[in-house]
Amino acid sequence: MIPVARVARPLRFVSSGALATGVHWLAMAALIGAGLAPAVATAGGVVAGAATNYPLQQRWTFGARPGLAALPGYLLTCGLGVLLNSTAFLLLHRGLALSVAPAQLVTTALVAVANYTLYKRCVFHDRSHPPG
Q1: Cα–Cα–Cα angle for 96, 97, 100, nearest 5°?
Q2: In the prediction, which pLDDT does 129 show?
Q3: FRET partner for 24 with CA separation of 20 to 30 A, picked from 14, 84, 97, 107?
Q4: Maximal CA-CA distance, the chain
Q5: Are 115 and 77 in contact (CB under 8 A)?
Q6: Could you report the per-residue pLDDT of 10-43, keeping only the tens digit for each?
Q7: Do residues 38 and 93 lie in contact, with contact meaning Cβ atoms separated by under 8 Å?
Q8: Which residues contact 116 (CB under 8 A, 6 or more apart)?
Q9: Do 51 and 74 touch, CB atoms closer than 8 A?
Q10: 61 touches 131 (CB < 8 A)
Q11: If phi over 0 gives left and psi between -120 and 50 gives alpha, with beta otherwise, what is residue 35?
Q12: Where are the domains of the chain?
């Protein structure tokens, strides 16, 4: 039988990430509506989503101590995420001529897998407060 924690953490990650992704997409849509290019708008959306995501992932998903101890690693991961997001989005949107929504959907999935792996192994590895 699979331990509950092995299933619960990925579900919390997805739930937290879904909320942050919603913020990302809303910001992206607003920036596109304001006249910015989609590639620039998605980078702005990443920043808005990251600010929403940090406390959710830190405390709820990974049970790390509250505070800023994990922030440097999180920001580094975010920087890598921005690079991955921008690169994948440009390849899909411009290179493969996918429209904005499908290109961002595929990009979001790729970045989510990378982020979960990095958060678990490098950023929120404090086991002193396991999530409940």
Answers
A1: 115
A2: 45
A3: 97
A4: 52
A5: yes
A6: 999 999 999 998 999 999 999 999 999 998 998 8
A7: yes
A8: 10, 13
A9: no
A10: yes
A11: left
A12: 4-123
